[in-house]
Specification:
By secondary structure, this protein is mainly beta. It contains eleven helices and 43 strands. It folds into four domains: 195 residues, outer membrane lipoprotein receptor (LolB), chain A (Clam); 113 residues, Acid Proteases (Cathepsin D, subunit A, domain 1, Beta Barrel), CATH 2.40.70; 141 residues, Beta Barrel (Cathepsin D, subunit A, domain 1), CATH 2.40.70.10; 77 residues, Roll (Pdz3 Domain). The protein has a 15-stranded mixed sheet that branches. It has a 14-stranded antiparallel sheet with strand order 1-8-9-10-11-12-13-14-2-3-4-5-6-7. Strands 17-18-23-19-22-21 form a six-stranded mixed barrel. The two termini are 49 Å apart.
């Protein structure tokens, strides 16, 4: 019954394969499920209409409470939680998923990814697999599973409209021991224990939600009360009404315009926390508030907890939580915001530009946002004062979590794509979408390069150039396409086709109306120019001694051809000390004309040497 919205869990496990025919696996699955149902309460389960549960919650050094209500006849549900300084909720009313955050803002989530996850959560959390006659799903016995020295019998459940998960049964007690997700950016495992009777039903009083193989990320739910009702009550499952807009505007204005710097295709702005001196942040439409732990310390903002954070890249990183009194961008101020906090020296080293964190969704949710890449300005407009652009057609979008999702087609293959100013690339496609449509073979993609860096660390991709990306009435020809090969994180999202990043978005004036889930794209002078990808093959970062570290070298690239290796350090660029060369300027220079030469002084464990790097197309 435990569905804690923001934090994922997965468990490393040993899989023992078995061979069996389809009818045999189906019969075995039915027998295991029937035995579990009987062990839990049999016919008494059939009489439950509403399941209401309250829990104590512990995660990452934080404690809190949660409440979940599920309609066993429809699987409609809602839940609320409070954990440290954070709080929120989520729900599913049979048509749409919704969530609320610490400031009680309501987000309607109707993307394919969000709906499929909501269906799986509802099916799993409502024990729907125990009621085969009510809810359609494929059920297949998949053999033995082992974990922590014990052996279990596993059934794979695939609900209609959702991704599969496994239920592991204890052969001695017939009770549910684990539920394990099989797909997604970060897979959950739910470990059931401490079975106790509540109202005649035998229920796991303790459930651990685990992410990765490290128990330090466990979320522990301990039931304090579980009650059942024989008929639906008045606890509606529709999303709550939106709260009053708490954004504070400068007196007498309906718009606020903020200048920005565009570095590495990222938007850099200045903002104030708690009225203190301005700090530099990256503005990312796909991110919630994020504060570097060093900045939090300097501001005197307490940080609580150590929770799992992820994004592009394979890794999980510790993130904390911090509540600030205010955050102000160009005079537009949001009170009482909860930030996640993280220590990310890798990000700063890769960017080559200091920043104190990320801002994005919370501001865009409270005002219409126009990003004019050509003029390097962002304008926030009160919803009631906004007038749509006359020279651009509206494009509807949905949400998956806090990320805007666009219906688009890549060379005729339809899917939902993230719109993400926080991505430096042009177009990234996810592994499931790639596999389903045979994109590696279609685009003859063979070169591997590091293409990004996020909360989950570096991200690798095969390089390609697609034909046409169609977003509503807008067609983008020959986009550089990064085919993600990451083995975890966002690249494994089951129903997200890809990510549209800054290198494409900077060719437009981008207007986002989150309240009405509408986008406008107005081409600027860059729209017709051919897109150029890095022509060096180097993924660079700022070294500890302020030189330039070669963090990775793309396969079959100009850098590889002259013997440059990851781990070496560039100490001079065309005779200039590397410490005096800005990384973002060098990256732009590496997009120069084919045949351009760079004389690089390179240091390795074998000494120093001079290398002539000649730019050439990689895609």
């Amino acid at each position: 019954m435990k569905n804690f919205p923001p934090i994922a869990a997965a468990l490393a496990l040993v899989v023992l394969s078995t061979q069996a025919g389809a009818s045999e696996t189906s019969s075995k699955a039915d027998a295991l499920i029937a035995a579990a149902k009987e062990a839990m309460g049999g016919a008494a389960l059939e009489r439950i209409a509403i399941w209401r549960e309250t829990d104590k919650v512990a995660a990452g050094g934080l404690v809190g409470v949660s409440e979940t209500i599920v309609d066993f006849q429809t699987l409609h549900n809602r839940g609320d939680y409070a954990l440290g300084p954070a709080s929120g909720g989520s729900g599913w009313d049979g048509k749409q998923a919704w969530s609320t955050d610490s400031s009680k803002e309501v987000r309607i989530e109707t993307s394919g990814e969000a709906v499929a996850q909501a269906i799986q959560d509802a099916y799993r959390g409502g024990y729907a697999f125990l009621f085969a006659g009510r809810f359609p799903a494929e059920r297949e016995y998949v053999g033995a599973r082992q974990a922590d020295g014990a052996t279990y019998e596993a059934v794979k459940i695939t609900p209609a409209g959702a991704e599969p998960f496994e239920v592991w049964f204890d052969p001695a007690t017939h009770l549910i021991a684990r539920e394990v997700q099989l797909t997604g950016a970060q897979k959950h495992s739910f470990i059931f224990s401490d079975y106790a009777r509540f109202g005649g039903i035998l229920v796991a009083a303790k459930v651990i939600d685990r992410v990765g193989a490290d128990p330090k990320y466990d979320i522990v739910f301990q039931a304090t009360a579980i009650t059942f009702a024989p008929a639906p009550d008045a606890a509606g499952f529709a999303p709550p009404p939106p709260p009053p807009n708490t954004a504070k505007w400068p007196a007498g204005v309906d718009q606020v315009t903020v200048p920005f710097r565009l570095l590495n295709n990222h938007i850099y702005v200045e903002a104030r926390i708690n009225g203190a001196a301005p700090l530099v942040f990256v503005f990312d439409t796909g991110a919630t508030d994020d504060l570097e732990t060093s900045a939090a310390k300097a501001l005197g903002v307490p940080v609580e907890g150590a929770l799992p954070g992820s994004g592009f890249g394979d890794k999980l990183e510790d993130v904390g939580l911090a509540k600030v009194r205010s955050v102000s961008l160009g005079g537009l101020t949001l009170p009482d915001q909860v930030f996640i906090t993280e220590n990310s020296p890798g990000w700063v080293a890769v960017e080559g530009a200091p920043s104190s964190g990320l801002l994005g969704y919370e501001f865009a949710k409270r005002a219409v946002l126009t990003i004019d890449y050509a003029k390097r300005t962002m304008t926030f407009t009160k919803s009631e004062a906004f007038h749509p652009p006359r020279d651009a057609a509206p494009i509807a979008f949905t949400f998956a979590g806090h990320i805007p999702m666009l219906a688009a087609a890549l060379d005729g293959f339809a899917g939902e794509f993230e719109l993400d100013t926080g991505s430096r690339g042009a177009l990234t496609v996810m592994a499931p979408f790639t596999k389903a449509n045979g994109l590696v073979a279609k685009y003859h993609a063979t070169r591997v390069a590091t293409t990004g860096y996020g909360v989950g660390g570096p991200s690798k991709a095969l390089l390609a150039r697609a034909g046409v990306l169609a977003i509503g009435p807008v067609s983008i020809t020959s986009p550089v396409t990064e085919i993600s090969i990451d083995k975890g994180g966002a690249a494994e999202s089951a129903r997200t086709a890809g990510n549209i990043g800054g290198d494409l978005l900077k060719r437009f004036t981008v207007t986002l109306d989150y309240a009405h889930r509408t986008l406008w794209l107005q081409p600027n002078a860059l729209a017709g120019a051919p897109e150029v990808f890095d022509r060096s093959g180097l993924w660079i970062a700022r070294a500890a001694d302020h030189g330039i570290e070669i963090a990775d070298v793309a396969t079959s690239s100009p850098a590889a051809a002259v013997g440059l290796l990851a781990g070496e350090e560039i100490v001079t660029v065309n005779g200039k000390a590397a410490k005096d060369v800005e990384l973002y300027d060098l990256r732009e220079a590496f997009k120069g004309a084919v045949g351009t030469k760079f004389t690089l002084g390179v240091r390795s464990g074998k000494g120093e040497r001079t290398v002539t790097l000649i730019l050439a197309d990689q895609v």
